[in-house]
Design brief:
Layout lengths: L3 E5 L11 E8 L2 H9 L6 E4 L5 E2 L4 E8 L4 E6 L3 E7 L4 H10 L2 E2 L20 E2 L2 E2 L4 E8 L5 E5 H4 L16 E12 L9 H9 L7 H15 L7 E2 L8 E3 H10 L6 E2 L4 E3 L2 H7 L6 E2 L2 E3 L7 E3 L5 H19 L8 E2 L1
Helix pairs in contact: 4-5
Bound molecules: uridine-diphosphate-2(N-acetylglucosaminyl) butyric acid.
Length: 337
């Protein structure tokens, strides 16, 4: 375990922001993590997973701990289900492809989401009608106070839309070291209600789709709408889709009768932030070397060399403009550091 000094974090965040870590260490075992947390040498510590859900706006005056714990295995398998464990540092999409190669079902709709397995429960990643919580069994996490490993069941995690206990009162107190999934074997239940997935099947003349077909459809949809972070720096959806009251939505509909929306409950409606941002005129706008993605207004992009502060300012301008036009507050989904 080697501690490095003054390291650029550009390769470690999908936004591609060039800030420096005062100290940096890549950790491959839980023992190394325990050693770091039992030492008093670096009082300030900062945990870095896949770096796919953060906007770095300043240098980090701390020991940045890059979680590089690797390994995945089948814990048990029956004719109907399999329990699979992945260590936190595995790349999410590579892990999904590995489960699909083994014909384990459940993660196909979550193909191509950037980031690592260990951070996936924190915000309960979701796409195309499926959320992580649907296949989540449990996770093991290091308690940073006691340095004991604790297991969190699905109930313990209190999953919600882009939310979990790890964003609430367990925040900063644990490091997730592995995640266990309950996947289907043989009789897979496909989730293909999302319109774009069915259109992909029609285009490809697929009438009896497999989980692998669903994954390929999701990959094609994502590639057509979302920028590849390897080419254009971004953090996926920058904002959450706001949930508003039915009354507020009726008011919105008076001026915007075609506003897209999803019913959340009897009293609440979710409005796509991407639509609000597009209506506010920001879709595809560039400001020098950063801007709003041209195919999905929910995604802010760094075309190369942008500063985190500039993107933060743009996000505030978008929030203020949306609030002024629609009287709806949109909240950042990414962590601003
Ligand atoms: N829309 C617009 N303009 C835009 C973008 C979207 O009008 O620029 C409208 C679309 O026409 C559609 C609606 O908004 O009516 C929803 O769009 P889409 O299906 O693309 O989904 P989203 O609500 O914008 C959410 C997730 C994505 C996920 C997709 C697909 C959030 C914050 N985002 O986006 O997640 O891939 O659904 O399930 O919930 C991510 O979190 O990084 C992410 C990409």
């Amino acid at each position: 375990m080697q501690i490095l000094n003054d390291i650029s974090l550009k390769p470690y965040n999908t936004f591609g922001i060039d800030v420096k870590a005062k100290h940096f260490v890549s950790v491959t075992t839980v023992e190394e993590l325990k050693t770091i947390f039992s030492s008093e040498e670096f009082p300030q510590k900062f945990i870095l997973g896949g770096g796919s859900n953060m906007l770095l706006t300043k240098d980090i005056d701390a020991l940045v701990i890059h979680l590089n714990l690797k390994g995945k295995k089948i814990i048990s398998q029956s004719n109907t289900e399999a329990l699979i464990e992945s260590k936190a540092g595995e790349n999410w999409h590579e892990f999904v492809l590995w489960t699909l190669e083994k014909d384990f079902g459940g993660l196909e709709n979550l193909s191509l989401i950037p980031g690592n397995v260990g951070t996936s429960p924190i915000q309960n990643i979701g796409a195309y009608g499926v959320e992580l919580k649907d296949t989540f069994h449990s996770c093991n996490a290091l308690n940073l106070e006691t340095l004991e490993i604790e297991t969190f069941t699905k109930e313990d995690c209190k999953f919600d839309y882009r939310n979990s206990i790890f964003k609430q009162h367990a925040k900063g107190k644990y490091i997730i070291i592995s995640v266990i999934f309950n996947l289907s074997v043989g009789d897979h239940k496909l989730n293909t209600n999302y319109g774009a997935i069915t259109s992909e099947f029609e285009n490809r003349n697929i009438d009896q789709p497999t989980i692998q077909d669903v994954s390929k459809a999701v990959i094609a949809i994502r590639l057509s709408k979302l920028p590849n972070p390897k080419e254009i720096g971004n953090s996926g959806s920058f904002f959450k889709n706001p949930v508003i009251t039915k009354d507020a939505f009726s008011k919105l509909q008076e001026n915007f009768p075609n506003a897209p929306h999803y019913i959340v409950s009897e009293t609440e409606i979710k409005v796509p932030a991407g639509w609000l941002i597009e209506q506010a005129g920001f879709k595809g706008k560039t400001f020098g070397n950063y801007g709003v993605h041209k195919k999905q207004a929910l995604v802010l992009v760094n075309y190369g060399g942008a500063k985190g502060k500039e993107i933060l300012e743009l996000s505030k301008l978008i929030q203020d403009t949306v609030a002024r036009i629609f009287e709806i507050q949109i909240e950042a989904e990414v962590n601003i550091i």
